[in-house]
Amino acid sequence: MNINKFLKTTIALGFLATSSFALNINDAVDIALKNNQDLQNQDISVSQSIDEKSIATSSFLPKLDVSYGYTNINKPFPTQLNDSGTLSTKVSYNLFNGFKDMATFDMSDLNSKASKYYYESLKFDTILNVKKAYVNYLNSVNNKDTFEVQYSLFKKQYEDSKAKYEQGLLAKNDLLQVQVNMSNSLQNFTAAKANVQIAKSELSNILGGYDLENEKIEALALKDLAKFDVNNFEEKNQTIQNRSELKALDMSLQSYQANNKVLNSAFYPKVDGSLSHNNYYNDARFGKYNSGVDEQSIASVSLTWNLFNGNSDNTKKIINKKEILKLNNEIEKTKLALKLQLKTAKLNYEVASANYQTADLSLEQSKENYNIVKSRFDEGVSSSTDLIDANYLLTQAKQNYYKAYFDKYISVETLKRVLEVQ
Q1: Domain chopping of the chain, boundaries
Q2: Between 88 and 421, where is the model more confident?
Q3: Do residues 337 and 418 touch, judged by C-beta distance below 8 A?
């Protein structure tokens, strides 16, 4: 097969869509957002935090209790009955508990917001990880195709060399050298095919076990890089202050501060009010109570104040303040890490862009070099070693080209993830 045809076929495999019904990278992201187990677990955590907020809300509502008691005495006193029953309905309400209910509600609300921000952070991480796994699969396919082309070229060279050897125009040592390189190339091709299967399985896992066995996976197109204007992007997104991780940590910090108010409530008195209505019976079957009062309504207000509980309340406050100090340190540490992420992402984009330009030029030069050496070899001017070297250079150039393209694509997606934009 003509070398130009091989190269055109390989490039097409790398950068043209394989099927209008193929799975593309956006489809993969959508599947992961629905099926990824880590995201599902965090979504459950968000739901749990909402439930806990609902529990905190219930503290502002009154409590309603209904109870029934029956008593049988075999030797009652003159003022007692052998059998008696009491049916009681009671409504109670906490009038004051040191602002604990309000602080508890605030704390649960902040925890709920923190959980949502953690979900957003994990979502952006998942999107980037899906794209990395997707690109890793495409790169493994391109490596396989590259080694397949390399093996085909070595096979063709071996057949040509063998014919020349049989005609006495080539030394046996040169023929054996071509054969050894052909065998090595076949080994590389075999390993590359296995790597494709591994990369597909890794992609399947991050998609929540989505079956890719018979799924056609669409390649990226060159236009995917052209969509990104890094200068315009940086003008609009120069800060990491809006990162979900920082917002989540800030909500957690405020939650601990609210918890401090919850702990302070232990130093205040508690005031409870209740209203109950009791019906009295002279047996277990609600028989009429004919001795004394048969029903009562009771209203009461009670005040309790714990004056000492072994210094437990003070200790809890000290522990909570230490947690606040730790969280402040974590926030500062995270800010430094995110600033480094942003700086690293920008530098990686610049390096990847430069490498892509270099790799593109190198591939064109390697293609031209192989065609020249192949023509000279056919004319008997270049040696087998020259053609072998040209083949290896071409293979390396193609691999570098694919890697540079994918590195640039991932550098763009990493920069988007750092600043949480789509």
Answers
A1: 3-64+99-270+312-418
A2: 88
A3: no
Q: How many whole angstroms separate alpha carbon 334 and alpha carbon 26?
A: 30
Helix or strand run (H / E) with residue 148: helix 100-166
Nearest CA to 87 among 301, 281, 371? 281
Is the confidence at residue 383, as pLDDT, over 60?
yes
d(CA 132, CA 410): 7
Instruction: Give the tokens for residue 237.
Output: 């997104």
Q: Are 265 and 98 in contact (CB under 8 A)?
A: yes
Dist CA 387 CA 39 (whole Å): 52
Q: Is the pLDDT of residue 275 over 90?
A: yes
Q: Distances from the Cα of 148 to the Cαs of 101, 158, 197, 362, 389, in angstroms?
A: 70, 15, 16, 20, 17
Architecture of domain 3-64+99-270+312-418: Up-down Bundle (1.20)
Which residues are within 8 A (CB) of 120 and not within 5 positions of it... i.e. 6 or more apart? 244, 420
Helices (H) and strands (E) in the chain, counts: 10, 4
Task: At 214, give phi and psi (nearest 5°).
Answer: -110, 20
According to DSSP, residue 58 is labeled G
Of 5, 18, 4, 11, the residue nearest 145 (C-alpha): 11
Whole-number Å distance between alpha carbons of 118 and 120: 5
Q: Are 111 and 389 in contact (CB under 8 A)?
A: no
**Phi, psi dihedral angles at 94 (to 5 degrees):** -80, 120
Per-residue pLDDT reduced to its tens digit, 213-245 = 888 888 887 665 555 566 655 555 556 778 899
DSSP-assigned letter for residue 75? S
d(CA 139, CA 126): 20
Cα 237–chain centre separation: 22
Taking alpha carbons only, the member of 270, 289, 304, 273 closest to residue 90 is 273
